[in-house]
Amino acid sequence: MATANLQFLQNPFPRPTFSSKYLVMRAPKMVFKCGCSSSSSVGGDAFSLTSSSKCDVDYLGESTKGDLNINLKHLENFGLDGQATLEGPIEQVARLEAEEAGSLLRDLGIPSPSAARLSPRGMFCTRTLNLRSISAIGYDMDYTLIHYNVMAWEGRAYDYCMENLKSMGFPVEGLAFDPDLVIRGLVIDKEKGNLVKADRFGYVKRAMHGTKMLSTRAVSEMYGRELVDLRKESQWEFLNTLFSVSEAVAYMQMVDRLDDGVIPADLGPLDYKGLYKAVGKALFRAHVEGQLKSEIMSKPELFVEPDPELPLALLDQKEAGKKLLLITNSDYHYTDKMMQHSFNRFLPNDMGWRDLFDMVIVSARKPEFFQMSHPLYEVVTGEGLMRPCFKTRTGGLYSGGSAQMVENSLNIHGDEILYVGDHIYTDVSQSKVHLRWRTALICRELEEETLAATNMDDRELTESMQKLLIVMQRLDEKIAPLLEADGELFNKRWGFLSRAGLWDKSHLMRQIEKYADIYTSRVSNFLNYTPFMYFRSQEQTLAHDTYSHYCSEHNGSSTN
């Protein structure tokens, strides 16, 4: 066995925090130092890394670039006989070695990947991803590297939107921001003035007209077999990100005002689609005019929720030899102010946030950044003065450009790059579809949803449902409240973010599985994993798997 696939052998040293000269290892009441380099060899002559020129594809279809290999000729450095070490059934050898590695990790106080996956801050894998083969990691900023207080940030965006609507002649008196009205992953039906939650196939499971939830019967009568088709942009608007919250709340409240007939006639004959355009225009003005961002820049502590572990997670990746990129649509002044506030105080040795990144690109104009080429400018002064640029350099700060420029300048392409963002379309979908970059989605609501789900007694609920279904015709009135209560601990109107109905996935979850290779609640969760982690997706069960399992059990028992 020349290549080791065990988790411990992939990363034989504990996860580092930071150090400019050494990798300083974290363990309870002890500090280890390892002078090894991640560039060519690990552990002297006993280990080596697979180079780009010699990499292949493993049995899971992942690149072997960066894989840790054992040099059998030098195992005697550890007092081991290479041949003797590999004797015996490989399953037994692997189990014993894994147990020993697990014991060592426990002694060092390092949680196992499986334990982290079960926590609200775990990394969840939809498509196998070997971080060893990743050479560069790109990050979005807003709601990715920087998490905003939704009530504060979106609340102010809502306020500015309402002020603009009022100046346009819309009646907004008595309205207030209510973030519980919506959750990420819902879809606005601009033709009917509804907000809907669809399952993975596009069937509408829950709906709200204005701010009033519709009954199950009303939803069925209104939508029947109609499917949510996100390609039909004239009707459907998907809430991709937390930035969508303020717009959706304002729109649904204005739908009520339209239904009540209190919108002045001099605004013209408005339907629900026209109303949506008016709300969007008002919110767009709030962003473009700059008052909102100026207020946030003046008092970032009121809007930003700091995460002290996040800079350490990026330092961990940088020490592991990954090139780090920041690619954001925000302008330079806003980016610099927010990153200084969120990162600098948590960095060691007078490091600044710019020191983390091999390249910073502001005003990137995503998703076009991933689709086409735009002029590239270099930001050359602290005041944001720019000059045209045709070639990038390490450590540079740029505006505009394109993803292909990034690939060419780093000489890294396609699936060697992991891009991390919070927007399913702008960040995750387009980088994968156009460039085949690997992708990670940040969804902070996962933490609250996971905790809410663990507070439910799933076994008791399932057993109760089974009993009730036997006498379903007589007890419909008892089953219905159970179904309606599913996910109430997360959101009383819409239930869980990831589910639609009792056992089905939501349309949001389908988008995540389609475009995001891994997903998690925050970037700092990377700190719970080695930068060389090999994420493997879980076994996907099929509808007929239960039948196959049933047959194998009964066929086996009949032969005994």
Automatic annotation (TrEMBL):
<dbReference type="GO" id="GO:0046872">
    <property type="term" value="F:metal ion binding"/>
</dbReference>
<comment type="similarity">
    <text>Belongs to the 5'(3')-deoxyribonucleotidase family.</text>
</comment>
<dbReference type="GO" id="GO:0008253">
    <property type="term" value="F:5'-nucleotidase activity"/>
</dbReference>
<dbReference type="InterPro" id="IPR036412">
    <property type="entry name" value="HAD-like_sf"/>
</dbReference>
<protein>
    <recommendedName>
        <fullName>5'-nucleotidase</fullName>
    </recommendedName>
</protein>
<keyword id="KW-0378">Hydrolase</keyword>
<dbReference type="Pfam" id="PF05761">
    <property type="entry name" value="5_nucleotid"/>
</dbReference>
<keyword id="KW-0460">Magnesium</keyword>
<dbReference type="InterPro" id="IPR023214">
    <property type="entry name" value="HAD_sf"/>
</dbReference>
<keyword id="KW-0479">Metal-binding</keyword>
<dbReference type="InterPro" id="IPR008380">
    <property type="entry name" value="HAD-SF_hydro_IG_5-nucl"/>
</dbReference>
